[in-house]
Structure formats: C-alpha cells, structure tokens
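Q: Joint fold for the lines below.
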Amino acid sequence: MTWLTGILKDWAASDFAWRFRTSPPVIFATVVFLALIFCAAAADIIAPHNPFDPATLEIMDSRLPPAWLEGGTTKYLLGTDEQGRDILSSIFYGMRISLLVGLAAVLFSVTIGVLLGLAAGYFGGWVDALIMRLGDVQLSFPTIMIAFFIDGVAKIVMPVAMREEMRFYVVILAIGVADWVQFARTVRASTMVERRKDYVAAARISKVSGARIVLTHILPNTIGPVLVLATLGLGVAILTEAILSFLGLGMPPSQPSLGTLIRAGNDLLLSGEWWISLFPGAALVLLVLSVNMVGDWLRDVLNPRLR
Amino acid sequence: MQTAADTALIKVVNLGKSFDVSEPFLQRVVTRSGRKIVKAVDDVSFAIERGTTFSIVGESGCGKSTITRLVAGLDRPTAGEIAFNTPNAAPVRLQMVFQDPIGSLNPRWRIGRSIAEPMDKAVSAADRLARVGDLLKTVGLAPADAGKYPHEFSGGQRQRISIARALAADAELLLLDEPTSALDVSVQSQVLNLLKDLQERLGLTYLFISHNLSVVRFLTDRIGVMYLGRLVEEGSGKAVFETPQHPYTKLLLETIPDMENPRRDREPLTGDLPSPLKPPSGCVFHPRCPLAMDVCSQVRPEMQAVANGSKVACHAVAQGAATT
Amino acid sequence: MINGNAAAAERREPSVPVLDVRDLRIEFPIREKALVAIDGVSFSIGHGEILGVVGESGAGKSLTGSALIGLLQAPGHIAAGTIHLSGQRIDNLPETEQRRLRGKRIGAIFQDPLTSLDPLFTVGRQLTETIHTHFPSMSRADAKGRAMQLLAEVGIADPATRFDQYPHQFSGGMRQRIVIALALAGEPELIIADEPTTALDVSIQAQILALLKRLARTRDTAIMLVTHDMGVIAEVADRVAVMYAGRLVEIGPVEDIVRRPNHPYTVGLMASIPPLHRQPERLAQISGSMPRLGSWPTGCSFHPRCPHAGPRCEVSTPLLMPAGATAAACFLHQGGTAL
Amino acid sequence: MKRYLKVLLLASCAALATGVAHANTLRFAEAQEISSMDPHAAREDFTLSLLANVYEGLVRWNADLKIEPALAESWEALSDTKWKFNLRKNVKFHNGNPFTADDVIFSFTRAGSPGSPFAGLLEPIKEITKIDDHTIEMTLKRKYALLLNDFAGWYILDKEFQESVGAEKPIDLSTTTGGAMTTQGVGTGPFKLSERQPDIRTVFVKNPDWWDKPQHNIDEIVYTPITNAATRVAALLSGEVDFIRNAPSQDIARIESTPGMKIMRAPHLRNIFFGMDQQSAELEGSGVKGNPLADVRVRKAIYQAIDIEGIKRSIMRDNSRPTAVPLAPELPFYDASLDERFPFDIEASKKLLEEAGYKDGFTLPMDCPAGSFINDERICQAVVGMIAKVGIKAQLNMHTPVQFDTELPAGKYAFYMLGWAGLPTIDAYNIMSATFHTPTGDLGAWNPKGYSNKHVDELIEKIGTEYEPAKRQEMISEAVKTHRDEVGKIMLHQQFLTWGMSDKVNAIVPADEYTRFWYYTMK
Amino acid sequence: MISLLATRLTSVVLVMLVVSGLSFCVFNFLGDPVNNILGVNATLEQREELRVALGLDQTTIVQFWRFVERAAVGDFGVSYRNRQPVIDLMLVRLPATLELVLTATLTALLIGIPMGIYTALRPKGLLSRIVQLVSLLGISMPQFLIGMLLILIFSVELRWLSAFGRGETVRIGWWTTGLLTVSGLKALIMPTITLAVFQISMIMRLVRGEMLEVFRADFIKFARARGLSDRAVYLTHALRNSLLPVITVVGLQIGSLIAFAIVVEAVFQWPGMGLLILQAIEFADFPVMSAYLAFVGFSFVMINLIVDLTYLLVDPRMRVK
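A: Joint structure:
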C-alpha cells in the first residue's frame, strides 16, 4: 500500500491538485458529476422503484405530486408520471441511458477520430489529404443535422421488429459519427508536432517500426487534448441525444433517456403537473453543466497554451 | 599509399537533396507556375575518418541539418551516395544527439525506457536495466535516475541522457546536431568535455553540426563550411580557423564576437541570406561577396585544393592561387 | 520638428545616471508563498552607455528588464527597491504614469522579431500609431515623415515602399530593425534590449549589434542589453552585470569582467567558453546547473557549485562589494574568507 | 386592446363598403395539416372534416348526424339496384360555374378511378347516366344499403375547373401538375378557400352565394397547424387562436379554469381497441411455440388483465367510456345490451393463461401509433405494465401515424392499437367490413391476419345489402356478440371529444368529429 | 490567396459531389419513388411502366447525372406529402428560417463579442465570473428547454408574446418577411433568444479565450512597451487578432444554427425549413429530405467561401502570395 500512498501524496502535492483544491466551483461540479454518475450507475440499487419493470407499476399511483406538495407521498419523493412511474427513479434510470449513450458516442467518435488523426498526421501525403478533405465534407454538415439524418433515415428503413431494439445503437452511431472530425484534427495536429520531434527521429534511427512509434511514442503524447475535448464532447453528446429524443428521434419510451422523459412531460407543462418534465429537465441541465464545468476547468489547466 | 577516403568510416559523394515545395496541383494550373524545387543540399562530398570529428558549420538554412538527416537515414538523398566502410558491409551502428533537450526525449517515458529503446530486442530485461545503469554512470548521472521522467532533469542532464541513449546501441558513429546550442555556457562546457572524453575512451566517430564556430573549434578535426546548400570550404580545423581561404569563411570568422578582444568595431557582413527558393546564379555567395567578379555570377566554382591543405570553391581564391 | 538628440541633451544632467536601480526585489506570489525572483539588484547606466546584463536562463535578467518598463507579468510585482530614471523615481508611479514613460522615455526591444509586430497592420501604421501616441500634436504628414526617417535610420532601404508593407513581407533581420525603429519612435533616454539577436543568424546578428552600438553613440541613448551570450556582451557592452539566481554577482567594465573576473561564477563562466583561436584539451567547467526558481539554496546561491565555498556561504548572503574596478558579491572579495 | 381596435376598424370599413359587418374571424389550430385540398386524394378524417366546409356531396350529415339533402334535392329508388337523383338547381361553384349533372358524373369517374382512395367507397355503383342537367340515374352492381351514407363523404367537384388546372385524376405523383389541388380547390360549400400556404396558414372565407340559408355568422376561418400540443394549448390560452379541436386531456382543467375559455364535450364515434394476429402459425419474437394469440383464452386473458378504469382515470382523465363492443352508442344499430365488458380480473387472467399453457407468459410484440388517437402512446405504455403483471412481456414499438397506417394494413404488426369510427359512412357495416371481416379484396383491409369467422363474414355481407332496419339490427347484434365473445378484438374505450375554445365561439360537437362551421356562431 | 481559393474550390467541388451523392441516395434508394407513387398495391406492369417513365431503368451513373442536372436547376422532384415541387416548398420556407438564423446570429455577435471582450479584460471581476457561469449554463441547456420555459412565462403566464408562428408577414416578391410588422418582430423575439443563447455563450467563450491567448502574444507586450494606450492595445491590436478565429467559428455556427433551427422551429411552430424537414422525416418524404440535404451542404459551402473572403479582407498574410 505504500506505493499507493506515495502516488496519492505526489498527486496531492502536484500543481494540478493544488489548482483543483483552490477552485470551489470545480470541486462542487466534480462532486455533483460523480454523484450523478453514481446515481445512474447504481440506479438498480439505490432507486426507490424500478419504473421500467412494468409489472411493478400501479396506475392508481399516477400523477402524484412531489412529496412536499399536497397529495404527495414520501413513497414517491419527486412525484409520479401518468403511468405511475416514480420520477426520481425515472431520472436515475434515464440518466443512465443518457450517460451511456453520451459516453458510447464519444468513445465511438474518439476511436475513429484518433485512428484517422494518427494516420493522417503520421503518414501525411495523400492519406492525410483524403482524411482531411473527408473531414471538411463532414464539417459541412452540423453535428445535429447528421445525427438527425442517420436517425431519421434509420427509423424509416429499419425493419419493424428491429427499430426499438436497435435505437440505442443507432442513436450512438448517429451522434458518434458526426463528431470524429474534431478529434481527428486535434490528433493530427499534435501527431504532426510529435512526429517532427527528435525522440521520434531517435526511435526511427534505432529502427523502431512505424506502428510501434505511433502507438508507444505518439499516441500517449496526443491523448491529453483528446481527453479534454472528449469531456466537453460528452456534454455535447448528452445534449444532442436529448434534442433527438425531444424531437422523437432518439431513445424510445421503452428505454427513456432524460430527453425522452422531458419530451413525455412537455405535454404536461401547462396542466400543472410540471414535475414530470421539469425534474428530468433540471437533472439534464445539472448533468451537462457539471460535465462542462469539469471539462472547462480541465482545458484551462491542461492546455499549455493558456497557462 | 592509403588515401583518407579509403579508411574513412563514412564517405559522402556528390550528395544532393531536393524538396518539392510546389503549390498544390490545382493552384499551379491556375497561376501557371511550375513546380518549385529547393535544393537543400547540392553536390556535397566529404569523408570522415574513424575516430575523428567532422564538423559542418553554416547559418540557418544552409543545409547542414539536412545532411545529418540524410546520413541518419531519416531522409533519402535525391542525388549522390553515402557509403559506410564497415567490416562485411554490416550496417553502420549510428545514433544521433539532437539540439532540443526537451523534444529529444519522450516526455511520457521514464528515461530508463528511452535509453533502453535502441538496445537489441534480444537483451533480457535485467541486462537492459544493468546496462542502463552503466550508461547513466558513463554520462555522469546516477543509475537510480532511470526511474525519473525527463521533466525532472535540467537541459544539460537531458543532453547527457540523450548521449546515453545514443551509446546504448554501441554506436560507432554519432551524429551531433547542435547538441549544445540550447544549453547555457556553463553546462555547454560539461557536455563538450563529456563528448570529447567519450570519443577518446570509445573511439567514436562524430559528425558535428553547429553554427557556433568556437564550439566547433574545440571539438573538431576537420571542418566543412556550408553556404546555401553547398560546401564552400573544407579542411582541417587548424587550417580553416587560422588560414581561412573562402571569403565567406573569412567573413563568418570575422563576425564571431571575440572574447579575447572585446569592444572591437567591425564591419559586419552586409545583406540578408538569399532565399533557397531562388539561389543566385553561379557562385551562390557572389551577391554578398567583397571579391565578386563577373565570372562569379555565371560559373559555379568547383572545390579545389589550396596550399594549406583545404579545399575551397571560389573563383577568386583559384585565380589568386594561380597568379601567385 | 522634434530633434531627438537635442531633446535628449536637454534632459541630460551629467551627474545623474539615466537609469539607477537600487536593491530591486521582485516577488511572485505562487500558491501559498511568495517566490523571490530578483533580490538586491542594484546598478546604473549612464548616457550613451551600453550595460550588458548576462546570465544563464532563469537568472532573472529578462525579469529585471520587464520590471524597468513596468510590464511585469502578474502576479509578479516589485516588492522592494527603487528605480530612478534620470533622477525621477518611477517604480512607484501609477499605471497611467508608467504608460506615459513606456516608449516615450524607455524603449524596449524583444527577442523575437517575428512575433513582436502585429501581423495585421502595416509597418507604417504601427510606426505612426506609436509616434502619435507620444507626440499627439504632430500632424499626420509629419508623423509619416518621422516614420520614414526612423526606417532610414535603422537601415531599411526604400522606406517609402516599405512603409505600406506588412511585417510578414520582411526578413527576420529587417523586422528587428523595424522593432528598433519602433523603440526609437518616442526618442527614449533608455532602451531595454532583451536578447535582441538570439533569434537571428550570426551574420545578421552582427549587423543588429552594430546598429545598436551606433545608436548608443549617435543618440547618446543608454542601452540595457540583456543576453545569455558572452560573445555579444564582449562585442558591444561598455560595462557588464553578471546575474546568477536572481542576484547580481558581479558588475564592472567589460574588459575587467572578461579578462579578470573576480566572482567564482564569472571565473567559471569565462573559462568554460571555448576559445576561438586555440584548441584546448579540456574546457573548464562548473559542476551542476543553476537551480530552478523556487529551489534556490540559502546563503550564496552559488555555493553548491562553487569550488571555494565554505560554511559561511551556506548561511549568509554576500553583498556586492568593490573589488578593483569591478564589484563582486563574494566573501572571497570582502576581505574575508569563505570559511 | 389593439386587436379589438383593429377588428373594429376592419368591421367599420367593411360595413361601409358592403353594408354587412365582416367581423368574425375564427382562428383555428390543430396538430395535423390538411393533407390536400383535393377531397378525393386521401380518405383521411381530419382533412375531410375540414373540406366538408368547402365541398359538398349529394347528401350531407346535419348537426344531429342525420342525412339531409345537399346537392341532391331528392331521390328515389327505382328498383333495388337503380336510383334516381334530382339535383339542386341554381347552385354555383365558388368560381361561378353552375352545378350540373356533368359535374356529378365527372366526380364519380374521378373519385371512382382505380388508385383513388374512394374507389372502394363507390365500388357498388356500376354507372351514372345523365337524364338532364339536373337529373341523374344510378345503376348499382348489387343491392347496397349504405349508398346515401357513403355519398355524404363523396364530394362533387367542378368538372371545368378540374380540367382547367389539369387535375382530372385524384393523385398523380409522377407529374408536378398533380399538385394543383394542394393549394387550390373549388366547391359549392358554405366557405371558400382564399389563401393556402401548406403547413403555415389556410384561410377560408364565407361563400356569399351559398345555396343554403347560412346559420353561421363567420366571415373568415384561419387554420394554423401547430404540431406541439403544449404550444397549441399555449396559443389558445394566450388568445392567439379561438378554437382547438382535441384539447389534450391533461390541459382540459386548465382551459376550463381560464376565464373566457371553455371546453365543449361530446362522445366520439371512435372506439379504441387492440387488434391481433390470429392467423399466423407462429408469433415471431414471442419466445414460445405456436401463436398464443390464436387461442381465445389468451386473448381473453390479456383483456382481463387490462385495468380499463385505471386508464380512464389516470390517462384519459375521465374523458372516455370503457366499451365492450366496437360500436359507439351514437351509431345506428348500437345494442346497449351487448356493451358489457369482461371484468378486470388478474386472477382470472392468470388462470386463463395457465389453461392455455402459457403459465410463464410470453413476449408480445406490440405496435402503437404515436399521435393517431387520444393518448395512444400513454395507453399502450400503461397496458404494457398491466399485462406484465400476468407474465406477458410486451415489446412496445411506437410509429408515426403515416408509418403506422401503411404498415398495419400490410400485416406487419401482430398486436396493435387501432381506433375505428366508421367514417364517412357512419354505420356498423363500415366498421365490421373493415375490421371484422376476414381480409378478402376490399373487405377486412384493417384486419390483416386478424379475426376470422365464416359466419360473421356472411353476416357482414348481408348487412351491407339489407335495407330492412329490423333485420339489420338482428344481424349486426349477432355479429357483434360473436365477435365480442370470441374476443376478436380487445376493446378499450370510446374516446370523448373535448374541444377547447374561446367563450366567443359557439360550436357544435358532432360525434364524427367533423367541424361543420356552417353551424358555428361567434359573439 | 490563390492557393486558398484553389483549395477552397477543390473543397467546394468535393463537398457538393458528396452532398449530391448523399441526396441522390436518399432520393433514389431510400425513397423508392415507384412504391411511393403507386403504393404497395400496384401491379408489376404499372411499376415497370413508371420505372421507365422515371428513368429508373438506366444505370445508376446515368440516373445520378440526371439527378445532378435537375438538382442544379433546383428540380428535386415532387414532395410525396404535399404533391408540390420540392423547390417551391423550400422557397416558401426559406425566408422564415433565414430571418430567424440571421437575427439569432446578429444577436449572438452583438451580445457575445462585447461580453467576451469584457470577461477577457476583467477576468477576475465579479460580473465576469457571473457572465462566465451563465455562459456555461448557456451551453449546457438544450434549446427546447429554454423555449418551453419562455413559452410558459411569456405566452401563458404573462401573455406578452406569441407562442407560435411568425406573426403577420409582408410579401416582397417571393420573399415573405416578418421584419416589417410589429407582430412579426414580436414573434421573432422568443425563437431568436432560444436559438441565440447557445451561440452567445459560444461566441463569448471563444472571444474570451482567443483574447486571453492573444494577450500573451509578444506583439501585445511590445505594443504595451511602445506605450500605446490600453484602448489601442486591447481594442485595436488584441481584438482584431482575436477575431480572426472567431470568423471561422461564426461561419461554422451559422451552419449549425440552420440545424438547431429545427429544434426551435418545432417548439415555436416556426414555419421554416426545419419544420419542413421534421415533417418530411415523419412522412418519409424523401425528395424533400434529399433537397434539404443539398441545401444545407450548399449553404455551408457558401458560408465557408464567405468566411474565406472575409479572411482575405482582414488578414494581410492571406492577401499577398
């Protein structure tokens, strides 16, 4: 265990940790973000109900207001929706879907982007030209538009039985595909910088293979900015998913994300049953806000250009 | 009698390297411009004796770094050849030490790993560790330093680590690309002394690149002076420094601040370096040359041996030699 | 029409140096503590004099220059000491007053001519803008004439054409000339040149140094030349100040510093420069390297590397004391011993 | 304030010009868009309900849903298969053309042409011959009981106009000219089209030359489609529109409690039910062998697992009436004695499943439209939860109405929600022939792979040809009872119409959901 | 400059090729015009006849060429849903979306840039911190949520602003504008705010970031050393240099505004192209989808071209070869 305490001590003494300790908003955002992740990940355990096990739903418990309002019950802290689903539990589960979709989409675009960026940056020449022109074309369509099209078209052309099941993957694909360019560009830029660095030349002189150089030397040195971008990208991906779901193109009601919950509750906005859409809405904003705050801070701290 | 070139470890003959810096195809069509070729290295020949130091000096853009990259095999020459004189024509074991002490080590690798990188893959992990320790001691660092990261070292120490890495593969030829120009003077002398010691102890051969003439003077056996991709003078260190022949060499030596003679007033070399894209015709130095004659702008001078044993590419020197 | 030399001459009072720095101390509050980056630095520069400030990177020489023009990067600040410009105290002036000094009475030249000029404006525009700032009453035509004159003075051929060109259309050496012209626009008494030739090729470097030397002589301007290159110092400086770890360790006329250095650091520094006309077997060397800011040793910061260091050096800091024509901060020269 | 001023100003101007007050503009919003001004292009209830104000048929439904003469003044049956119609004289189309027998024959050819959605409706007619300009004779292929009912939904167009814009056929997508009817149309009705920007704004103005005596006082109707329910309600609440059809159930209370707003209610002809694939040998994706839905016990088990009162209370907010039969009480031949549901009984349901051999349940692919019926999505979700309690795992797929309406008849769904009102015929025959009958030819189009009973099929065909009401009643009751007892559909409820409007509007709310503006008045 | 235009031209050609390829695929393969025209019940012969009539019996290359030929003159066929030429539908919707997008862009620039400058100049000020926090919220809130809240407050509770539509419009040629009537301008307020909030935050953060970076540039330090006033240093030199990258991003943002307009149009029932495409997706109206794709691609290419030309104006380094 001594090595662990050693690492922790090193970390605690580092500039990074110091800057973290001295920014209360970031600490707060990190705590909120971790708490939300925990709620989402442990939804099965900590959610008071499982709103997506249809067998447990009581339609007679529908549309109950939050516990502190008249008619509310502590059984459902944030109230219930029209199906009698506990809003609090719905938020936990919905956040899980939102986070999963966001993370998977970002992972997808990071993977594609990093691979293409490494290839473009290291090999240069026509490989580079091809990939970058492809990126230009891709950038000619706003992210949300690409997601929109992939999603909309998939909804139309997929066989009936597969539609709902494949939604999750289609949404991930739709959001992920659109976003690879920024990662590819970043990785390409830093690859081109790293490629010209002397340690790469030293490795080449020592007859280290190209693939090995890319993977062991260049990749680790390009991943920093990618991580920052990915953090900020996570916020965008979650938002994009919410927008798609709100327009009815994202996650279906059977696997509702926060966006789907808001969409369902949107119709009830005027009826006085505001908690059905506003609580998931607040959860969404809180989630994205905390992600963005942490990402922002990471960028400020890790971006050597801004130091 | 054996000539120098026969025993030389490395022989560079008529070496040339051109870069295509043309605009994209479409643009060339639109502007009706042709391809643009930069001759970074143009018809350069020299040889390095085993166990000696050959230096190339010149200002930025003269092509000296390109030569090291060509010798190192990082780039392919577009003309001429580089021949190594090794037993059984085995590939020469060469390594390189770079100018920038920050960029020459992977910042995310412990230095032990960087030093071990050039080692034979067959060597066992334990042996590698031991060898890394030895190398660190050789360059004046502690074996325990192997576990540290580059940012924990000063610039001078990092250059020592680079040297240790270069030695790790039992290199016989070291390419030294301005290894001390980023260092402070007090540290520079440490590294220079180390390089000299190592050469004596291990019989290393150095190809040394620098713009700093006094550093070159300390380390070198022979010197080549380059200007705009061409070698203009080549000779022993003593000959070049004490009896420079080419007007460029003379002026270059003239511009160097002289520590032993402070506060002197001198007439600096006028004009800017010409663009390598449009090198002057004939002798590339003629627009700035105080001795320029008509022939200089038309005929390219060839390297010719002169009295002090150097070779010089200059019409004026050749004529002077002929008339005297 | 303003005659720069005449204006400078009017301000001139022979007994008062152009720049007088006393016990300058610069601190950087970082995290919980304040790092002392410069401590106890005192020197002065007279009219037409070039003071070379030399030292390894991190010794604090550029920081001193920044402090003089009032452009210390926050959170750095002058914590103690005084700066007098031609007898007027300037370190405690409010920011607006300081700004009036900058460019007008103290010019500055920075290391990299490629990045010192705003790429989006013509050279002429940047020149006239500076001239107008310092001489608000000057007419446009006069300002343009003045700008042309400055360009010609720093050796730019064909100023009329060059006036309307952008920085990227100039070579590195030419840009540094323009930077110098900009520094001269306000007719300053003092120019702070921070590594003005480091980014240039040797042949161009010599041209710029010659230009600076000429300006000091013809305009009677005081120049503080900050550099790490002893060669540059030897070439142009009248006097030399050697800095090590935030302190001035030795100051004196260039011949003395180069030929007869007193402080062990200066001695080592001079000896470690490879000579041009000989090929010695070995170079003298100072072991170790300069400590980083924040981990400076107690006492004389040079003591860990000093061949003459004694116990006293570890605890107390030597002050700058005259030693012949120069002054050195070393116990060896304060009539005592290192012990 | 400003608005009133403007209205006042407009009114006074108009009064000066014509001497008649032109002041009443009815601003109307609904989720859907009028799909086309061509009344023969789509058999889609919403479009037809609006076009009823522009076009007229030979007969029409009055405010009480009784047939009354419209473009035909009178008619008589010459035989079982031959009818004579006397057409109304002095009727003018909106473009001034007189209405004649040629227009009727043209409209018959047009709407009855192959590919037209109305071809099925007019299928019983063999030919129409012109006797004179205002008399026609109609020959039927066979005895057919619902001719007049069907005619109420078949609108007459001006031959000359249609030919002049090149719209002789209902739909022709291969040429751009087919779009002529998207933005224009000429009928004989009480209102005429004055402006049309698809998806943005459609304006109808009063037809001053209408043959009938107007009971309305509306001068202009501005229709705006607003898809988003909340936005639509917000528009009503903020006074930007005067009238929305189908106020969402959740917003009814709010509208009613808003001063100056009201809700007008009426039962709807539409009954909602689940249709089932009872023909396939295997139920794909069910995880069990065979087709559980083919077993009447399973269908009844699902039926009894549904807490219909819970749906009524929680989702419909009491704006529904649970039903046992697909016929609404407002339809002729409704038999109240049959309208008795199997009770909601989880235990009985479980027992039935056990008997059928599905003790451990199975997976049920479930397909629902999102936006076709009131609260369709929510009801389906609730049902998923309810049948989960007896062990049936439903896999819910939601579809856009368009997708749903093409995929359902194609037999792509196994268990689906559907609602049927029997429009435009307004008769049990329409419901039964479309959703009870074994799919054959034009019949049973909305019952793919569904309920099939030879005897019921025969009954339905007879109902179509029987003129005698008592006999029809008997056959209808028998068919409905058989269908109910065999759980041909899992019936849910009859939905209620809840129209939200400003107090200024006095509307009628007919059970067929048609907006018959010629009965509306405004204060 | 020529080099820039040449690469841009290559890019334009490439983008338009890919775009037309995509929209051709949507039109031809997803759309299956035959099925959509004749419906599922048509006979084989009818289908074959129509295939020939539509040229679907030709090779894909020929079909693609014809598609491009027709697309070039704006002929994207007839909407399945509205039975009108797609181009007419698009032209009717175009003004609404463009007016919305342009007012949102202007709003974003007019608010975002000054806020960015302010927060860069006073990074530690209280107001700066508040603005930054709010801007973080601005990029963390989905538009539909903002729109919903605005409607709830300003339409339903306060009854100040219209919850839907463009208000009264004035027709100038084929262009209908809402900018000339009071109700049209009022109707613009909420959609514009909804659409602009994200962009304001983006631009503010961008300007701030770029300015802080430019502040570190040597030429700023040198400008201060020359004695220039803060005004000249910050608002002439720093700002102009910071705005270069902002131009690029604003160009990209206008493009994504067209996309985000879909959301806003859905919430406010704004009769623009976004609503059209939403309905097209719902109704599987492939000709409209294909035309919309082409439109967005084309707009982006044009915006990029304008951005490049702006660069030529602003950055002298681009002008001289």
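Q: Anything notable?
A: The interface with chain D takes residues 53-55, 57, 59-60, 62-63, 82-84, 156, 160-161, 163-164, 248, 252-254, 266-273 of chain A (CB under 8 Å). Chain A has a mean pLDDT of 84.
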